[in-house]
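Hi there, hope your week has been kind to you so far. Would you mind checking whether the tokens look sensible for this chain? I owe you a coffee for this, so here goes:
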Amino acid sequence: MAGDLRIERVVTFGVLGAGRPGYPPEGIPLDNNVWIVGDDDTALIIDAAHDADAVVTAVGDRDPLGILLTHGHEDHVNAAIALADALDTHLYLHPDDLFLWEETHGADRLPDFELADGATFSVAGAELVTLHTPGHTPGSVSFYAGALGTLLSGDTLFQGGPGATRWEYSSFPQLIESISERLLTLPAVTTVLPGHGSATTIGAETPQIAAWAAQAQ
């Protein structure tokens, strides 16, 4: 039943870009949140960052129903193949971010299924609904677990503001539109669990939208 449902946080650590152009020689250290939604028997995994073994340990002997990727950036998918193989489960990614996946993993091994806006995933008697929230990347998505009053926002919405849009494929106005129309319309008490950092709520972030939107003008 949905009452048995819980969300667990696994913080993983990695270093991105060491020795690559555009990065400092030592790379950029980065912590990521991997979220596990489930009960004692089943689990859905949100993102696959840095350390497949840590996530496998957290999943334990539960049945892994799938790995849902919020977007294609390296730090969210770099452990995806190893994790999918270790758990013998499927990978889901929005097709608009396949080009980013291929930057990390190449084109020989692609995610198993495409995520689409409105796609639902059942776990422990509850549903996660996929919300396409482009802007940070073209294929960014968030997942809404209404039974838990929780949004898993990837890098779309953080405590204190929207995600980064420094890449040529990003769009700050589109990101503000995604947040305004898809996320801030959720109940104010909704907990927001992002891809990095601390949790927040829809109610805490809503008053700032006007200031954020002004930056998009």
